[in-house]
Specification:
alpha+beta
Length: 435
């Protein structure tokens, strides 16, 4: 019998706000001495009352809008009840039935499984984008010869956005494309560094296996928790699919449980039985009133969204930048900023080639010599080509007038297609005069 993977994701993103979700403690907790950024609210002390972080809520909704989600104009926080040492209150303030955002989608490349809205892409459905507070962090150590678990509450209460998908993935390759795109979108929005090494983006996969051709979802699922690497999540999925397949072929049903990924062994390990929603005894958070947004408020936030990675990649491609270089540049805000800076006086393709192969820590100081000496510099010839390109591309012209510099990259790329290597500063000068 052949088997089919059923795979969905929960991606957790720590927001880069100045303060925590419900108190004034600093949210930048990485590398700080343990338990030095806490207060009665994030320690869950009796009588402490939470006050929501308005910026965090706005950023959560903007991420939802970037993922084509609908926004609930009426929303609320809920209490998710469970007992664990890193959860000081005995419950987590999260969202249950009325998340800020729901019913979105994201198109990602699907090289092995063409489909979706256009050939070579697959549409991944976004179930919800909701807001919650992060937990503390357990540190396993040895004290006086004894193995102990210590708790650092600096992370407790940090704003955390959770992006939940439908089980639309068929392979680890598809999931890698999706997760990298989520990271690129978050960084483009400027709401988080999404640095997995520091835990500001953490991956969780929900995995099950069913007979090929079956449309019903399996009666179980296994959750792989808190993986902090694209490479490791792929290995975890591959191992888990193999483990579950072997159980099914032996006539057994895998346990519904939460598992972790042990990097040294390249294997998943059982942690605890997996809870259902009713096990958490959700109920509305009594200390925080519900939220009522207006359509005008949501429309204003939508207007503030920057150009997103897919659109930027299209612009770079139109300027002649190879897709591989464009992907590297768009994935890094520092590279993209330097690309825009250098292409003001240099060939976009040459700039992209330099930046795509440059170590990240050298990007800020990157420079290059003007390579236009051997290029076409006949002003009359360039002006004639530029006039034709401007006339044939009114949308790019409108983008430039609206302040989107990528429109100029597109026109330059069209002129290069017509003439070959050209004097880029001269082309820009002529375009500025024409537009």
């Amino acid at each position: 019998m052949s088997w089919q993977t059923v795979l969905g994701f929960e991606t957790h993103i720590e927001l880069g706000t100045n303060s925590k979700m419900f108190c004034a403690c600093p949210a930048d907790h990485f590398g700080k001495p343990p338990n030095t950024q806490t207060c009665p609210v994030c320690l869950g002390l009796p009588g402490a009352l939470p006050v929501p972080n308005a910026t965090a809520i706005e950023w959560c909704i903007k991420l939802g809008l970037a993922l084509n989600c609908k926004v609930n104009l009426f929303s609320k926080f809920d209490r998710k009840n469970y007992f664990y040492p890193d959860l000081p209150k005995g419950y987590q303030i999260s969202q249950y039935d009325l998340p800020f955002c729901h019913s979105g989608w994201l198109d990602v490349p699907a090289p092995h499984h063409p489909g979706g809205e256009s050939a070579g892409t697959k549409r991944i459905r976004i179930t919800r984008v909701h807001m919650e507070e992060d937990t503390g962090k357990l540190q396993h150590a040895e004290v006086s010869g004894k193995k102990v678990s210590l708790v650092d509450f600096n992370r407790s209460g940090v704003p955390l956005v959770e992006v939940v998908t439908e089980p639309d993935f068929d392979s680890p390759d598809e999931s890698s494309e999706f997760l990298k795109e989520i990271q690129a979108i978050v960084r483009t929005l400027g709401i988080s560094t999404a640095d997995m090494e520091k835990g500001s983006m953490r991956l969780e996969a929900n995995i099950s296996v069913r007979p090929a051709g079956q449309t019903e979802l399996p009666n179980y699922k296994v959750e792989i928790k808190n993986v902090n690497s694209f490479r490791f999540i792929k290995k975890a999925i591959e191992y888990e699919v193999g483990r579950q397949t072997r159980l099914l072929e032996a006539g057994l049903t895998p346990d519904q449980e939460t598992r972790g990924f042990k990097e040294s062994a390249g294997a998943t390990v059982a942690q605890r039985s997996k809870e259902s929603a009713h096990d958490y005894r959700y109920f509305p958070e009594p200390d925080i009133p519900p939220f009522q947004f207006t359509a005008e408020q949501i429309a204003a936030w939508r207007q503030q969204l920057p150009e997103l990675p897919a659109a930027i990649r299209d612009r770079l491609a139109a300027a002649g930048v190879p897709s591989a270089s464009a992907a590297v540049i768009v994935a890094s805000p520092a590279r993209l900023k330097k690309y825009i800076e250098l292409t003001a006086s240099h060939d976009p393709v040459a700039v992209a080639k330099l930046l795509a192969n440059l170590p990240e820590d050298q990007v800020y100081h990157a420079s290059m010599h003007d390579t236009s000496g051997k290029a076409i510099s006949d002003e009359q010839q360039i002006r004639a080509a530029a006039k034709a390109v401007v006339s044939a591309n009114p949308r790019a012209v409108a983008d430039i007038k609206a302040g989107k510099i990528q429109g100029k990259f597109f026109l330059i790329g069209q002129i290069k297609k017509e003439l070959g290597d050209v004097d880029i500063p001269l082309v820009q000068k002529i375009l500025d005069k024409l537009i």
